[in-house]
Description:
The protein is of the alpha+beta class. The chain has helices at residues 3-7, 30-48, 61-71, 140-146, 149-158, 174-178, 183-192, 239-249, 268-280; strands spanning 21-23, 50-54, 88-90, 93-95, 105-108, 116-127, 131-132, 135-139, 160-166, 196-199, 205-211, 214-216, 223-225, 256-260, 282-285, 292-296, 300-304, 307-308, 312-322. The chain has a domain at 3-102 and 118-128 and 286-297 and 307-319: Double-stranded beta-helix. This is TauD/TfdA family dioxygenase. It comes from Amycolatopsis coloradensis. Keywords: Dioxygenase, Oxidoreductase. Its EC number is 1.14.11.-.
Amino acid sequence: MSSSSRASQLDVDLRPGTPPILRIDANGDALSWAAEHSDALRAVVAEHGSVLLRGLGLGDAAEIGAVFRVMVPTGLMTEREAFASRQTYFGGVYSSSTWPANQPMCMHHELSYTLEFPGLMLFACLRAPTVGGAIGVADSPSVLEALPGEVVERFEREGWLLTRTYNDEMGASVAAAFGTEDRGAVESYCRANAIDFEWQPGGGLHTRQRRSAVVRHPVTGRRCWFNQIAFLNEWTLDPEVHEYLVDVYGADALPFNTRFGNGDAIGEDVIRLINKVYEATTAREPWQAGDLMLVDNIRTAHSRDPYEGPREVLVAMADPVRLADCSPTVEVTRR
């Protein structure tokens, strides 16, 4: 049976401005429902890029972890090179990234700066915020098509550069990002993953990595705007936060920033343009407790709106994909 035939088994609600939504009644047995419909759900994601399940009734972290694992029998991924801290619930199941509630988490593709990244993202809501906090999704081929040709052409030609200065005050620490505090192990990882590194006085670490901004989907072959150029750039930050970080760390040592692939600074106008295109193509839906969302991480970017009140969303990553299998436009050189 083809993936489109399996997808047609489920009645997905497709409305402009919202992600694909599947409303179900799991009768209190989310695990059995997920196991029975796993292939059909994967087919929906393959067809539409994402799907939000409402009515699954997920009640606690253990149940969410079990559903994640039945959806991905090949196993969940361990995160490396995280840009912000997370709580680990158990193997491969994390909290959403620590990010100020009053600040948006702009559109991005998870771990798009790594050489092996998740092809599938799984999100589950245990506690929905009282105000805001919607998850947004954007179709990356549509974003690519909407961006001005001259912007796309430069990023295709040069790629994009991620710079990071690790510290113990903001963002993920060296230990959290690399899974170890051993300098030798960190250096070996960086060399194997095409990351230039330099240890700073006092034990800090500065890294630079150049990646492709446009890739081809490994299954469909469609060209996708796949990066975190805008999200991790200084001009996406709240102006007061940006001013504070520059004062504390200096303009060249921000916890994270992005540049053109040749090292040139990216102007505020370019970042605003990218975020404007993202917003024009965003479909969003507020979380409800018990929701589950599956996202094709290459075809579909995701975001998080600002929110008020407690919010608990669990995350898992699966179906690892190598950048080398996505027709990268810039060469990656390991040291």
